[in-house]
Amino acid sequence: QKEVEQNSGPLSVPEGAIASLNCTYSDRGSQSFFWYRQYSGKSPELIMFIYSNGDKEDGRFTAQLNKASQYVSLLIRDSQPSDSATYLCAVRSTGGYQKVTFGTGTKLQVIP
Amino acid sequence: EAGVAQSPRYKIIEKRQSVAFWCNPISGHATLYWYQQILGQGPKLLIQFQNNGVVDDSQLPKDRFSAERLKGVDSTLKIQPAKLEDSAVYLCASSFDYDRAQYFGPGTRLLVL
């Protein structure tokens, strides 16, 4: 079982719709969760991080965490063509220097 | 605040040659990371420094890869000799401390022929 799993996509949504990106992780003790956006040919850019169960909102982005189900998601409201990118989920482990493991990413396509 | 700087941005070498990458983290960031990202995959941690000490190099191919962070600021990653499968983007990231969010540099795209 991979430590951090994401559906590779592509996930296609029409402009203005809600895009829902999902990530599951295997380390039950994980404490911190990150979403990065990566445009083609560019480096990952931090969008949001979440530590506690529940929702965290920042503009059009909402991160949702359910530790019991070992599941974290990213919702993008009012999706725009400029949101088309690969979204990477990253999970920080507990103990030591808290290694961060990345998923393979979900490619999102927003159709005008 | 300046971001993470990396150079060179692109490098093409032949197999068995050596190559070195440089990274300058965000000022004041204690933790520095080198990742390898192969096309279609997520970044894979190669090595993590806390100040000038190595805290995780479990996925670094030590027979050919080496890295250092002298004085706890800049870092270099070296590959010697390079193999075809080393073709990838090498990303440097830094964070204020090991439990804080990471910020990435622009990356170095390496092609080994």
Which helices and strands appear, and what pairs or packs with what?
The complex is a heterodimer of chains A (112) and B (113).
Chain A lengths: L3 E2 L5 E4 L4 E7 L6 E7 L6 E6 L3 E5 L2 E6 L4 E6 L8 E8 L7 E3 L3 E6 L1
Chain B lengths: L4 E3 L2 E4 L5 E6 L6 E7 L6 E7 L2 E4 L8 E4 L6 E5 L8 E8 L7 E2 L3 E5 L1
Parallel strand pairs in B: 2-11
Antiparallel strand pairs in B: 1-3, 3-8, 4-5, 4-9, 5-6, 7-8, 9-10, 9-11
Note down, in words, how this protein is organized.
The complex is a heterodimer of chains A (112) and B (113). Chain A is 0% helix and 54% strand. Chain A has 112 residues and is an all-beta fold. In chain A, the strands form two sheets. In chain A, strands 2, 4, 5, 9, 10 and 11 form a six-stranded mixed beta sheet that branches. Chain B is an all-beta fold. Chain B contains no helices and eleven strands. Chain B has strands at 5-7, 10-13, 19-24, 31-37, 44-50, 53-56, 65-68, 75-79, 88-95, 103-104, 108-112. In chain B, strands 2, 4, 5, 6, 9, 10 and 11 form a seven-stranded mixed beta sheet that branches. In chain B, β5 and β6 (53-56) form a beta hairpin. Chain B is globular and about 35 Å long. Classes of the chains: A mainly beta (112), B mainly beta (113). Chains A and B meet through β4, β5, β9 and β10 of A and β5 and β10 of B.
Mean pLDDT of chain A, as a whole number? 93
The main β sheet of chain A shows up as: 6 strands, mixed
Q: Please trace the helix and strand order of chain A, writing H or E for each element.
A: EEEEEEEEEEE
Helix content of chain A: under 10%
Shape of chain B: globular
Structural class of chain B: mainly beta
Globally, the shape of chain A reads globular
Work out the strand percent of chain B. Answer: over 45%
Give, in order, the helices and strands of chain B: EEEEEEEEEEE
Strand residue content of chain A: over 45%
Average pLDDT for all residues of chain B: 95
Largest sheet of chain B: 7 strands, mixed
Tell me the number of helical segments of chain B per DSSP (H or I, 4 or more residues long): 0
Rg from alpha-carbon coordinates of chain B: 13 Å
